[in-house]
Amino acid sequence: MQKPQIAYGAECIAKACEERLALLYPKGVPEPVRDRYEAEMELLRASQAAEDFVLFWLLSKEAQKSALPLMGRGTVMGSLLYFLLGNGYFNPLPPHYFCGDCGYYEETGTRLPGIDMPEKRCPVCGGSIRAEGFGLPVESVWGRDGKKNISFDYNVSQEFLPFARRVLERAYPQSRIVPWGMFQMQSGVSAVLPDGEESIGVRQAGFAVLPAGNTIQDYPALLSYLDDGEPCLTGGSWELKSCWIKPVLLRPMALMDSLVRLQRATGVYAQELGERELRDITWSNICNMGIMDGPSSALFRALKPKSFKDMAALVCSAHNSFSWDKEGTGQVRLEGFLKMLESQAFQKYPCFAREDFFDWMLEAGVDRQTAFEASEEIWKGRACAGGSAGERFRALPVPEEIKEAAANYRYVFPRAHGVEYTLLYARLAWYAKADSRAFGKMVRSPKARQ
Question: What is d(CA 414, CA 433) in angstroms, rounded to the nearest whole number?
């Protein structure tokens, strides 16, 4: 038995990326951009990720055609290839200015992302100049040797699932495409239960691509049913892969459904809201929507972040796990968080995301290999671990203040995912400012939340 495979791979990706580069840089691709692109293509050709990049490209084209948003998850969003193949995703390159009129390109060396950098005119031709880049290093996606495991997961609107299924059917013409469901707690799934009580239901989380010739009935141990009665496969991705099934994780997300409704109400597509449109969105604009998760909202209100960089840092913090928080409630204990921020080590090396540790180590003179190895140990919680794992980390040639800051964490969120969440909140806040009535009706009303 063979697992399903797409018939085309790395060279298809190269062609699509070259076409996008030509559109973005009509005066010629700047050398730093070309170097990053070629480095990632070399890593891609040596990896097993080509199929998933192709599938992402196909899904992105369908999302653009159907005007339904597709939001990535995890470190892969820090890839330049991901940016070139997608539609409306943030630029992972170092913060820079770029002039589309004459091709002027300038890296700023700042820690501010492009969305926070001041506007200015091109010093060569005097034309309009773009500030871009979120500073995601190659290592955050590929590792140092290109063998890092890359996961492709997505948040989507419920409406996108049928379109995604058609994409998969065209990409895998010899395979059956069946729903992939996950068990989760939910309210009101049964008329037998009193209102407000919860039950375990099966919600669709994507699709499973079966080996050629197989049907859903060939997997009785994984067979279940969605809430509407449609047969599905359940289990973790590793369970499906062990049966030569390809899982495609497409998680329906209520906020993505909200974006779709707001597009229709306002006539403005979410993909049109780029960094230029979102740069004036503030923390209060986001908090006042009343739709953020509790930990993020609490941190925003307590610390009032003044820049997009700071907002993304707090979104990451709301998803981090801390060594000083033993309760495991999923809420950030503000007292401990403020104490961490005020510590001498954190004042010198403020690290909220995985890549912050990597960047600060490079700035402190640590070589890239050691910096990457140390940052991997940190986000996995080894900096606060006992035994041989903790000893191995503490023996690394890394500044002691960074080790002290790292000891606060049991898990550290990737910057790319924090940036994407913040951009999602910012886009929703833009709609709230542009048309508050539509926002209240489409997002905040009880009916819209169902």
Answer: 29
